[in-house]
Design goal:
The protein contains one helix and 17 strands. With 191 residues, it is mainly beta.
Length: 191
């Protein structure tokens, strides 16, 4: 969605892309119920299990999903494909529950200086959940240095490919990089 463009729906917004998705700075997406993005889409239905590696015309080439715009919706769901994917979320405002799923492949997920996420939907605080699923995924989080920035990011990698011989060889393990600021940042890490 290009700069200064607006996409609006009284219900759900669903974007299916065979390759990349870019929601450019200055664009706006408004959906009363949800925004769902499928990158590297090659399935027959718009469900997370619809990806078909046999139908994939560019096997080995994943998607790049860049979100740099204003989104107003209670729920954002983002899905990559079977290949190595790249995700970047850099937004100025956020008041949505965000779920990101890498699917398969060695995915790169970047959260860049998110604003405060203290909104609630259905009496639950909105959080960001990142799940690279299968593959050796890398999560990079750049902290917003504002003293008023509060958000919860859950990394719940559900991939089952981390077997001991892959871990010792450097193949198949996930990495998390959290980049703070020059200010006194506060982190709460739980396992």
């Amino acid at each position: 969605i290009q700069n200064a463009s607006t996409l609006s729906s009284g219900g759900n917004v669903l974007l299916l892309a065979g390759d990349n998705i870019e929601l450019q700075t200055g664009s706006t997406v408004t959906a009363a119920t949800s925004l769902t993005l499928f990158g590297d889409f090659n399935g027959s239905t718009n469900t997370p299990t619809a990806y078909d590696s046999i139908l994939d015309p560019d096997i080995g080439t994943g998607t790049t999903i860049l979100i740099r715009n204003t989104i107003t919706t209670p729920q954002i769901s983002i899905y990559g494909g079977n290949d190595p994917d790249s995700f970047e979320i850099t937004v100025l405002t956020l008041s949505s529950k965000v779920d990101l799923f890498g699917h398969a492949g060695n995915d790169q997920v970047t959260m860049n200086q998110l604003p405060s996420l203290i909104s609630e939907h259905n009496s639950l605080r909105d959080i960001v959940t990142l799940d690279g699923e299968a593959g050796a995924d890398t999560y990079t989080i750049y902290i917003n240095g504002a003293s008023t920035a509060h958000y919860i990011i859950t990394i719940a990698d559900s991939g089952t490919d981390e077997v001991p011989e892959e871990i010792t060889s450097g193949i198949g393990y996930d990495q998390i990089f959290i980049n703070g600021t020059n200010n006194a940042d506060t982190f709460l890490l739980r396992q």
